[in-house]
Each structure stands twice: as C-alpha cells, then as structure tokens.
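USER:
Make up one protein:

ASSISTANT:
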Amino acid sequence: MMLVVNPTSINIIWNNDKNATEYSIVWIDVVSDITYNDTVNGTESFYTIENLQPCTDYLVILEANQDGEQLQTEESTRTTSQAPFQVTGLNIMQNGCNPMSVTWSPVPAVGNCNISYNIFWNTNVENETQEDTTTDTTYLIEITSFDPSINYYNISVESCAEGNCAQPSYEQQYIADINLAAPVNLEMKNHNTNSITVTWEAPNITNECELTHYQICWEDEMVPETLSPLITEYIITNLTLGKSYNVSLVAEYEAGFSDTVTLPARTTNPNNSANVGAIVGGVVGGLVLVALVVAAVVKRKKIKKLIRGNKDDKTFDMVIIV
C-alpha cells in the first residue's frame, strides 16, 4: 500500500489481490479518535480519502476481503499538510545599537496546523546565511558589527505548517550610521616626576548604545589599557621624569569605538630649577670676579703711579702688584 498525502486528502494505491472480492478502507482521526470507513469492489486498486483536515494525523487501514473473510490487512499513519499563506506586512526597524526589530502580520492557521516562521538574514559582505525559527510575529536580530563595509541586511521570513512552507517574503534593511560619542573634557589633574593623573567625563549617549569600556594609551605602539566604563580618572605610572606624553582616550561600545580624544602631558623634572639656579649663580659669580679683576688692575695702576712718582725721583723703586 502506498499513501500520497495532500493538504485535505490522501490517495491510497495498492496491488490488486486476485482473490479479493472487496476492499475495506478505514481511516481514523488520531486526535479526535473519529473513525470513517468505505468499501470498494475487488477489482479496484486506488482510492482517495477526501475532506480531511490539514495538519492532522490519520491512521489508514486497508483490508482485502473475500466474501466477508479477511485475506490480508495493511495500515499506516500519515499527516496531512498544507502550506500556509505567505507572510505579509514585513517591517524592519533599526534603533541605534538596539537589536534590529523584524515584525510581520500573523498568518491565519488552517485546520489543525500550527504556524511557525523561519527567519533568514545575511549582510552585503557575508555569504553565510543565519537562520532561526519562532512562533511569534516579532524577531530581534542582534547587530553584531557596525563595520563600515556593511551597508545593509538581507532578511526574509517564511511561514510553515508541519514542515510545509509558503514562499518567503523578502526585505532589505540599510544600516544607518551611528554616532558613537567620545569622552569629553580630558584633562590633566596632577603630575609629578613619574606619573600623570588624567580625568574625563563620560560621553553623552543618546542612541541606546551600551558603553562597555574605555581604552587609554600614552605611548606609540603600546597595547591600550582597558578600563571600566565607570572610571573617569586614571593615574599613569612608571613614567620618565621630564618627558612629554600624548595621552589618548577612546570609548568602546558594543557597536565599535568612538573618535579618539588626546591630551599632551608631561612629567615634572625637579633638576630643572636647580640647573637654572646654578646657571644664574655662575653668571653672577663670574660677573663679580670680572669686576674684582678690573678693580684690582685699576688700583694697581694707581698705586704704581703713586709709588714711582717722578721719573727723576730715585727714592722709590718698589712695585706693588695687587
């Protein structure tokens, strides 16, 4: 016996038994336990059970009889199925970093069919299609990347009943650019010979994007330090005295990174003031020494003149050198 199942009917095909004078066909609605039957003469090898409910299990029994005596019997259970109506009213909304909301109008059930929906989606840069199944008429697609190369999502929804699905409905959703706010008012609060303390204010988030971390760095090619989103002050330690640094801070969101804000900063060098004092002192000391030498030379000349007096005076021949 072979059964061909349709949405509201089942075709029964069998090999004719030459000894059969009639065939008895029985079908039972498994859910309601209601039994139906019919008979055909022994020359038949085909029968159609009609007016069945879609998406319903039926037990079909075929008996070959000869003058009221059963020759053989065969039974099998099948489920009728019917493709539901196609999904209509497909609508897609993107709200900042929130999951993409996909909604559609409910498809009416036929008979005992339980309606489910298959959702398929991919992006313009992804070949792999993701899919899921739901019985609701709303589905949230997590936007896992805001890569600038991803311009839109391809989304389709199909309605199904017992594995029999209607033609899918398609929609294309373009991804709107999202402004991921950067931290504000990055300032140097304090600094000394080997550390710099910086502060900032949290970004003003208006697009439902979740701030997950801050990343901060202060030297080229260093791996950024990752900070909690609750932190707005950080002490950079183990720095070199008297060295300039370029502090960079960025806000990290589930959807990507904000623009980078930067702050030039410098550690202190206490030796600078001492060096300046030494230089000033040296200059002053040098000037004093020069003045003394000049004064001494002038004085020497005067003394020599006084001591030697007149050239004709031979009384003094002593020279005083200061």
In short: The first strand starts at residue 2 and ends at 5. The mean pLDDT is 84. The CA atoms of residues 35 and 162 lie 23 Å apart.
